[in-house]
Design goal:
By secondary structure, this protein is an all-alpha fold. The chain has two domains: about 180 residues, Growth Hormone, Chain: A; about 220 residues, Growth Hormone, Chain: A (Up-down Bundle), CATH 1.20.1250. The chain contains 18 helices and no strands. Helix 6 runs antiparallel to helix 13.
């Protein structure tokens, strides 16, 4: 096996760590800022939708471009742009120039940058991994975000309560600037540019490239099955994500029980008010810890290629049962089940992403990643909207159970039913 920590891989990992530290702060700070200034959950929801909308369309449009031009340059130029953008936000706050409409536009810009960056990053990253190290590389990648969240969100919370939001945005701007400078040092062999330069890029060429990307996916039943399944999964995840916090903030969440008498008293949660939110925070932290453990284990242990499809199906099935049932249990069992879910989720991610990125040819990777991201984002938004609508008329727990039941059907109706094709992708040495 070749060396994993090459110069290029070290640089992209360093750049990702720095930018993710900034992203963890930004996600927290922007949400708080909008809620502070609007004092409206509706306006906050509109803000979040404006952020998500570009992530439905732009990945699809970015794919053909990223298969013909430098993915490395796209990444560091977008990070330079992000640094400038967050500096502008800090200045606006300093001069008290907040305007809700302006920040709706700003959220769409941030969402647009993030969506294109994600496609560029996912398409470049595999080319920086040495042969035989895909599994370890994506295990490292899966660790960065939860670690960044674990470190930065508490720090951001303290800063928010002491020095305000402006230093958070300044920190975010500096982190993106450092990441961009580091990423310029990547010496990537972007062979896809050479392979795609036979014909001058134009609107007609762009249209043909887009069509070619769609046709490529349609011609690959294994990739089609994976994308279809993860559309359903993200829809279920979107529904769960939209309803879990409201559940814990409601009377149902306040009524969560404990196996051990006096646990809530010991933790200072003897008053029902705020108990649900506190329990939610703890449970989500436990889930993040599970992701950390899962990622670390995935880095240390190499999965046998012939087992990966079976492991993936087992993981998908287990998550459906765990996420569909934990809200009915005492808090201690909730914690255990969310730890297991976090542990399993990272393995699900690693198997899918390492296998598909290894399977898809480099010259088509941008288009595939663009289409797959569009599909998964669309699933998330649909799930959120449906959960929001039905959450007004029935129990959040019931909606989550139904969405996970649909997900379970998709495990067997899509993944297992197309197992022969999916195994060609999953059961490979990466």
């Amino acid at each position: 096996m070749t060396k994993l920590w090459t110069k290029n891989f070290t640089i992209i990992t360093m750049g990702t760590v720095v930018s993710m530290l900034g992203n963890a702060v930004a996600g927290f700070a922007i949400g708080l800022m909008v809620l502070d200034y609007t004092e409206s959950t509706l306006l906050y929801a509109i803000f979040m939708i404006c952020y998500s909308l570009p992530r439905v369309i732009l990945p699809l449009l970015a794919g053909p471009y990223l298969d013909r031009f430098s993915r490395k340059k796209t990444i560091y130029l977008l990070d330079f742009f992000s640094a400038a953008l967050y500096a502008v936000i800090a200045m606006m706050l300093f001069f008290d120039l907040f305007n809700y409409i302006f920040f709706l536009a700003l959220s769409m810009i941030v969402g647009s940058v993030d969506s294109v960056y994600s496609v560029a990053y996912e398409s470049l990253y595999p080319t920086l991994i040495s042969k035989g190290n895909f599994g370890k590389a994506y295990a490292i990648s899966s660790l960065i975000y939860p670690i960044a969240n674990t470190i930065m969100v508490p720090i951001a919370g303290i800063c928010y309560n002491t020095v305000g939001l402006i230093p958070l945005f300044i920190f975010n701007s500096i982190s993106f600037l450092i990441a961009a400078i580091v990423e310029t040092r990547i010496n990537a062999d972007e062979t896809h540019i050479i392979n795609q330069k036979a014909e001058k890029f134009s609107a007609a060429r762009f249209k043909n490239d887009l069509k070619d990307g769609v046709n490529y996916l349609r011609a690959e039943p294994g990739l089609m099955a994976i994308c279809a399944y993860f559309f359903v999964t993200m829809m279920a995840g979107g529904a769960e994500g939209a309803l879990v916090l409201p559940f814990f903030k409601s009377e149902a969440g306040d009524a969560v029980t404990s196996i051990f008498p006096g646990l809530f008293d010991m933790l200072g949660l003897n008053n029902a008010v705020g108990r649900g939110v506190a329990v939610y925070t703890v449970i989500m932290s436990i889930s993040t810890f599970g992701r950390l453990v899962g990622g670390a284990l995935h880095y240390k242990i190499r999965l046998q290629p012939e087992w990966k499809f079976a492991i993936a199906v087992t993981v998908y099935t287990s998550i459906c049962f765990l996420d569909g049932s934990y809200l009915f249990l005492p808090v201690e069992l909730m914690m255990l089940m969310k730890f297991i879910t976090g542990f399993l989720a990272v393995n699900s991610f690693n198997i899918r992403i390492s296998s598909t990125q290894n399977y898809v040819p480099n010259e088509k990777r941008g288009r595939f990643n663009g289409i797959s991201q569009m599909i998964m984002t669309a699933g998330t938004i649909i799930g959120q909207l449906m959960a929001g609508a039905f959450g007004e008329i029935t129990s959040p727990r019931l909606i989550i159970v139904i969405s996970l039941a649909i997900n379970l059907v998709a495990v067997f109706g899509i993944m297992v039913a197309n197992g022969r094709h999916v195994k060609r992708i999953y059961n490979n040495e990466v």
